[in-house]
Here is the input.
Amino acid sequence: MTLVTRAWSMLTTMLPAGGGLRDEDWTRRHRLLTILLAAGIPLLTVVGAFRDEGLDAAWFITVALVLPCVIAATAMTSKRLPSILVAVGFTALCGGFVAVCHGLTEAHFTYFVVVAALALYRDWAPFLAFLIGTVLHHSVLGALASDRTYDHHEAAQHPLMWALLHGLAVLGAAAFQVIAWRLTETEEKRAQENLDESQAQMTLAFDETPVPMVMWSPDGRLLRANDAYYAWMRLSRPLPMDFRLEDLPLVAEPGEENIFGEMLAEGDAVTVTRAYRRTGDGSRIWVEIHSNGLRDKAGRLRLIFVHCIDVTAQMEHRDELRRQLRVDDLTGLLSRKGFEDDLAALLTGQPGPAGVIYLDVDRFKAINDGAGHAAGDDVLRAVADWLRAVVPAGSLIGRLGGDEFVVGLGGPVETAAATARSVIDSFGTPLPVAGNTSRIAVSVGVAVADRPDLAEHALLAADTAMYAAKKGGGNRLAVFNDQMRVDVQQRITAEAQLRRALEGDLDETLPVWFQPIASSVSGHIIGAEALVRMRAADGGILGPGHFIPAAEETGMVVPLGEHVMSTALRWLMRWRLELGYVSVNVSPRQLSEPGFVPMVARLLAEHGLDDPSRLVLEITETAVLAMSDDLQERLDAVKELGVRIALDDFGTGYSSLTWLQSVPADVVKLDRSFVSGLAGDVRKSSIIVAVLGLATSLNMSVVAEGVEEPDDWRALAAAGCPAIQGYLISRPVPPAGFERLLWETPPVAPAPTSELLPL
Here is the structure.
């Protein structure tokens, strides 16, 4: 029993299962076979009519059997019985055709055609019904009416044998149909498995993804949506069958285009970002929409696949950044960008010019450093409030950063100047600052623009005028004029020249010259000051006055200063046996850089200077007067490296003697204003003696700058000033010229004369 079961199982595995057609496919095939069966009746009639016997009994019997099968197969709604009736009808039709043809061998070919045709049903019932009918026809009719079944004498003698031969031929044809049927089922099964896997993957990717996805029909009906879409849209399941796009709880912002219409028009890929309002709570959301159209082979749009990304947070962040770009957080005024944009819009939207008022708070740094940043912020907010109260309504008010403010208003320069004077007068009221009252003063510059493309130039012009007012003592107004325009143009030209020079070969475009510092006693060169020059396009040499101010304002003084220091150390190492030290000027802008001290340490290491005290950094007294805690810390860090510090231009500030006690300086450089004419000025002599005494008590060395007369040299030597610098010794010269000075015999120091310098 087990063997039989196993054999049967193996057989059923090898044979096709049958079925598997969709209803519409089965109906289409059944209709085709029924029509062919019905068409066989007139075809049989035509064949019979041309035979000698005409339409005989075989024709009538065949029609009587086939016609009911056609009618029943057409009328019945089930599948199995109509298909069997079609198979029976085809059996009768083939048998009748053979009988009408008196057993013609070629007439038997119809059985092979019908076997293939009935295999279209992919159902064993009609297939087997036809095979059984075929065998019965060949055996029974072959024995009873062999002359109407086979057309040769041998068949009449042995009907069963020929019935067997014909039957086997039909069964052979049927076997190959079964094989083809089985192979087709195998391929379909594999294709279905692949399809099922693809659908499972698609379902997983579609339904389980956290990105909202939806499919819409071209007429706006919802076909499918994933869980993320339902949750994001706040839709509850199940939705009505006719749920449409317009039923979504969203309303497009006014002015937004119809996105679905755009999808239909484009058909293929569309990527847009749109703003919507939720109908429930009115909240605004931003959606990045990606859509793709699916078309059939004829190019007709079948559905639109859409996935949505909620970019509300990103868009709100963008809007906040734009607001921050336009608005100053501290004061609520316009930022620089916001002011420039609105000033251009003001000039575009009205005829005539617009005035620009540029304000800077005098002595703000002292307030900020002395009373603290919180007090400084209070001052800035108070200035903003004052401006709102004083300037005409509708004026543009901005804060450009730090303590700089700007006002824009329509009208000629006279209108802007009158408003600026009102602003200056309004700042006479004392302001509480850190528990005390302080009067705030401002320096104001005024300029005018008459075209939108000149808005930025007007801002720069007003800035230039403000600096002129500040240089004039502050708390005053300056109107931009032609001379300032020339100064601005020169500054712009100098900036462009310096930028090109920094991009070239620095040793060629920015050569470093040296001015000797000599002993006042022997005249020997003991040190040198490194001074940078610029080579112009025509090969000429420009002094620092042409480009250092531009370098300070733009920040290019930082790379420029590093170049000067590196070059100075390189030449110092070359002259290490002949030269004691080299000094380099350092600007406040350089000192304010956090990387200044590491840069000095790196250059000392790169050039292998074993004694860092041979490098002297010169800082101006005016820079010391404005020194903050950060600058003080950097100077202390420089001292820790072993580098010496010189206080340059001493005597030009307000509290020089006091600062000598608080600045970690090693060298004091007397300004040329104290040295020039020293031999004949008793008061200058007294000052020199006092400074020398104080410097000696503080363990500082002194260098006198600007020595141009032998009498002044003698006076300084008599007073005990150890070193001098000036044109009397040498002007600044290139390195080659400085080398010759090192090797030449020094000038003879004049003998001191006590009468020239009373003590």
Observations:
- The mean pLDDT is 82.
- The chain has four domains: 2-186, 213-316, 327-480, 494-747.
- The CA atoms of residues 15 and 355 lie 98 Å apart.
- The chain has 30 helices and 23 strands.
